[in-house]
Amino acid sequence: AVARARAPLAQMVKQLQTQFPGVLSYESRGSANLQVNASLLRRSFGDKELAALTSVRERIVWMDLSGTSISDASAQTLAGYKQLRTLRLTDTGVADLTIRALTSLDALQSLSVMGTALTESSLAALRSRHVRIYGGHENSSDSNATS
Fold it and tell me: Which of 38, 86, 94, 113 is the most exposed place for a label (fewest CB within 10 A)?
């Protein structure tokens, strides 16, 4: 079943793994879902590189963009990753425009935003949906996750 689920994307996943070594992997051996750890590439990963992943976006469920050069220019691109459950945007150039775009992600459960230029008001819609927010201004300690 896993092999069948992976088959339609296998060639694209392989190509992206070559383009971004160590960044794209399967969530587990028993899953066709993908995870992205672009934080490994730091500032060399930006808006253009994120757009390159859209061909497999329907399978990406976990994404760490911390420390990358992602900006609000990627707001609509991120809004297209409909299966995202966890998104880390720590120390990126995103602000309110991106956070507002994320409200369309029904699967989103956890968002890390420490070190970003967003305002607390932009997080309200996500908080009302019980998305866990790490690094929002409402609480400044590590216990600032809301449930």
Answer: 86
DSSP E strands in the chain: the ranges are: 24-26, 34-37, 60-64, 86-88, 110-112, 132-134
The 10 Å Cβ neighbour count of residue 110 is 15
Joined tokens for residue 65: 């963009």
> CA nearest 144: which of 86, 136, 73, 69?
136
Span 29-88, pLDDT tens digits? 999 999 999 999 999 999 999 999 999 999 999 999 999 999 999 999 999 999 999 999
Closest by Cα among 55, 121, 51, 56 to 65: 51
Residue 109 to residue 106: CA distance in whole angstroms: 8
Residues in the chain, total: 147
The enclosing H or E element of 79 equals: helix 75-79
Q: pTM score > 0.85 for this model?
A: yes
Q: 92 - beta bridge partners?
A: none
- How far apart are alpha carbons 20 and 13 in whole angstroms? 10
Q: Is 30 helix (H, G, I), strand (E, B) or coil?
A: coil
Query: 23 and 44 in contact (C-beta within 8 Å)?
Result: no
CA dist 15 and 48 (Å) reads: 16
